Amino acid sequence: MSATIGYLGPKGTFTKLAVDAAFNGEHKESYATIPECIDAVEHDEIDIAVVPLENAIEGTVQLTVDYLVHQVRLPIVAEIVVPIQQHLLVQPTFQGGLGDITEVHSHSHAIAQCHQYLHQSLPEAKIQYTTSTGKAAEIVSKSDLPIAAIGNKLAAEVYGLKLLEENIHDYSNNHTRFVVLCKEEKKLKIKHPVSIEKTSMLISLPSDQAGALHQVLSAFAWRKMSLSKIESRPMKTGLGNYFFIIDVDQPYDDVLFPGVRGELEALGCNVTIMGTYPVYKLTI
């Protein structure tokens, strides 16, 4: 029986692009927000959620990280890395130039990825933030005003828009990491080669111990474990209280990781394994 996969919608989002490229034949449900998508797995409405985690230009999608840490602890079972190309989308009947566009609609991350382009080419246009790039395209498709959306070619196809200008993102190496969340281990039907196996850890430090972060990193360093990301986020319990997300570029094993965990817990740290999972790098 195929799984039901939820994604940040509506149709035309980059998350939908990632889901379509990675999964074939499964039933797919769109959700208006990242929390709604994650909640749907928690409440057994769907089997799998795919949500954005990090963009190479704009950085971490903080809503995803904070919701997984503070609200719903779902394990990460896979990661999908997708190249991102942002385009300026308008109604097919639009015959004006860039100077005629009064508003640009898109998700905050997409706007940030095109900041210099907007500053130089559309300085007078008002920026309108939406819940997704797909939603921005939908808004433009229903409007008779001279407005535009930032989105992908799928959004243009779905909502009948034309590409006024292509590849307007500020940096060429634009990729987004999407995480696949599931309550239980499932054999995912992703027919792409695995580029690497990773393990993500959530670590909170003792508040009254000097040099704790150095000791945490040393636990990985002397074991020669490669870390691809270290990020701090507020615990939301008061100023100066943080947790750390650490990505280790290897799968969980029965020797190194238990040793790290024991060493960190002896320091007074709290350690949670957020997932050990394959990473798929897709070309779209």
UniProtKB/TrEMBL annotation:
Protein name, per record: Prephenate dehydratase
Gene: pheA
SUPFAM superfamilies cross-referenced by the UniProt entry: ACT-like (SSF55021), Periplasmic binding protein-like II (SSF53850)
Enzyme superclass (EC): lyase
Sorted UniProt keywords: Amino-acid biosynthesis, Aromatic amino acid biosynthesis, Lyase, Phenylalanine biosynthesis
Domain Prephenate dehydratase residues, every copy: 4-183
Organism name: Oceanobacillus picturae
InterPro entries in alphabetical order: ACT-like_dom_sf, ACT_dom, Chor_mutase/pphenate_deHydtase, Preph_deHydtase, Preph_deHydtase_CS
EC id: 4.2.1.51
Site-annotated residues for Essential for prephenate dehydratase activity: T176
Cellular component, GO, one term: cytoplasm
Domain of life per record: Bacteria
Residue ranges occupied by any ACT domain in the UniProt entry: 201-278
A Gene Ontology biological process term: L-phenylalanine biosynthetic process
Pathway: Amino-acid biosynthesis; L-phenylalanine biosynthesis; phenylpyruvate from prephenate: step 1/1
Keyword set includes Lipoprotein: no
Catalytic activity: prephenate + H(+) = 3-phenylpyruvate + CO2 + H2O
GO molecular function: prephenate dehydratase activity
